[in-house]
Amino acid sequence: MARPNGKYAWSVTVGAKGQIVIPKEARELFGIRPGDTLLLLGDEKRGIAIPPKSTFSTLFGGIFGADGADPEEETED
Predict the structure, then answer these.
(1) Is 51 part of any domain?
(2) For residue 55, is it within any domain?
(3) Which of 46, 73, 71, 51 is nearest to 61 (CA)?
(4) Is-above-0.85 flag for pTM?
(5) What is the rounded (10 degree) CA torsion for 49, 56, 58, 70?
(6) Domain encompassing residue 57
């Protein structure tokens, strides 16, 4: 069975300290370099996801509002 275009799957092993090694092909594909900070998202029903760095600003903008302000926070007049 051929994989869908643009879709990938890798297998990793969790070490004794809970660490995983991101496969070289994945690091190259997504531009992950030593010292980079990654965002790990988890959902008890859907699992774990590590979104690409390019989505950070979109994710944080959606969470905190486009200007960085908390959309739930009321402003004083």
Answers:
(1) yes
(2) yes
(3) 71
(4) no
(5) 100
(6) 24-64
